[in-house]
Design a protein that fits this description.
Elements lengths: L4 H22 L1 E6 L6 H13 L6 E6 L6 H8 L7 E6 L1 H4 L1 H4 L11 E16 L10 H10 L5 E4 L5 H13 L4 E4 L3 H10 L4 E5 H9 L4 E5 L25 E9 L4 H16 L1 H9 L3 E2 L4 H22 L6
């Protein structure tokens, strides 16, 4: 039998697709993480690797590509082969906010990646420490205190250019106050300064401060979620307090290189969603202050586009830019 040229091309394309799927399933896959080993994101990635091992690939390892607020990990995956063997677990900021912050960004979040699914999300909590008078127990009281003590007002976040950074800016604009932003390298550096009284306040990752709120070392004034957090049910949302513009959660999602075969993306999506729904994984997320959160790939892409449109004007209005 003689095969037409079109048939030969089709067969070749099918073979390439099957080869990519086979490599992803039978060899080694890597989950790249842009933050330090032992941190919350690293822990989540390792739990996810456990869920995928033996189902998606024989070996699934986590590689730390530390630095540049997660950009190095994203750049690594952008340049990787689009066969499903390399993926990144990224927070929302490198995909949504960084394109507006950095004059030169070596990747395009909407062109260089396929968003597979978010894995989890967490709200931010605005907290104050002992540098703020003990009598300050509500957001209204804090705003009043800041207006009377502008030289003492400041808030810390785990990174410049993060969603927390700009949520703090929005709060300032809407409340009519001025706060000095102090950028740290991760929440692990923020918390000691808060508790020690060096830093007055923080737009903080909820999971990193809940135990200190429970012990009384920190006071929670508001959360950024649409509804009250199950981890801090007595703390009002910013929307409840008249600041709906501050609302927004940070999600952590899996991305693979653009041109990764749809069949590979679909399989990875299905396995991640199944893994996130399993009790041990969900329980581990809860211990770290995260909620399970998944979306279909196309819907995830639309969310990224929507959030980029939301934060772009806010970043531009702030005048904040980063060189590298």
């Amino acid at each position: 039998m003689t095969l037409s040229r079109r048939t030969v091309i089709a067969v070749g394309a099918s073979a390439a697709l099957l080869g990519a799927i086979a490599r992803a399933q039978s060899s080694q896959a890597r989950i790249n993480v842009g933050f330090a080993a032992g941190g919350t994101l690293d822990v989540i990635a390792r739990r996810l690797a456990d869920q995928l091992r033996g189902k998606y690939a024989e070996s699934v390892i986590v590689e730390s590509k530390i630095g540049a607020g997660g950009r190095i990990a994203n750049e690594t995956v952008r340049a990787a082969a689009p066969d499903g063997s390399s993926m990144v677990l990224s927070p929302s900021s490198p995909m949504v906010i960084f394109p507006h912050v950095y004059k030169k960004l070596s990747y395009d979040p909407q062109k260089d990646f396929v968003p597979v699914t978010p894995v989890c999300s967490n709200a931010q909590t605005f907290v104050v420490g002992p540098a703020v008078p003990e009598s300050v127990r509500t957001l209204a009281q804090y705003i009043s205190w800041v207006k009377g003590n502008p030289d003492k007002a400041g808030y810390g976040t785990p990174a410049a250019g993060s969603i927390m950074h700009f949520q703090g800016l929005v709060l300032q604009q809407k409340a009519g106050i001025e706060l000095t932003h102090v950028a740290y390298r991760g929440m692990a550096a923020v918390v000691p300064d808060l508790i020690g009284g060096t830093l007055p306040a923080s737009m903080a990752v909820t999971g990193d401060v809940t135990q200190h709120i429970a012990s009384g070392k920190l006071r929670a004034l508001a959360v950024t979620s649409e509804k009250r957090s199950r981890f801090l049910p007595d703390v009002p949302t910013f929307a409840e307090l008249g600041f709906p513009e501050v609302t927004g959660v940070d999600w952590y999602g899996i991305f693979v290189p653009a041109a990764t075969p749809a069949a590979v993306v679909e399989k990875l999506h299905r396995l991640i969603v199944a893994g996130v729904q399993e009790a041990p994984f969900a329980e581990n997320l809860a211990k770290n202050g995260f909620d399970p959160y998944t979306l279909p790939s196309a819907e995830f892409a639309r969310r990224i586009e929507s959030e980029a449109r939301r934060w772009g004007p806010i970043v531009k209005a702030s005048g904040f830019t980063a060189e590298s």
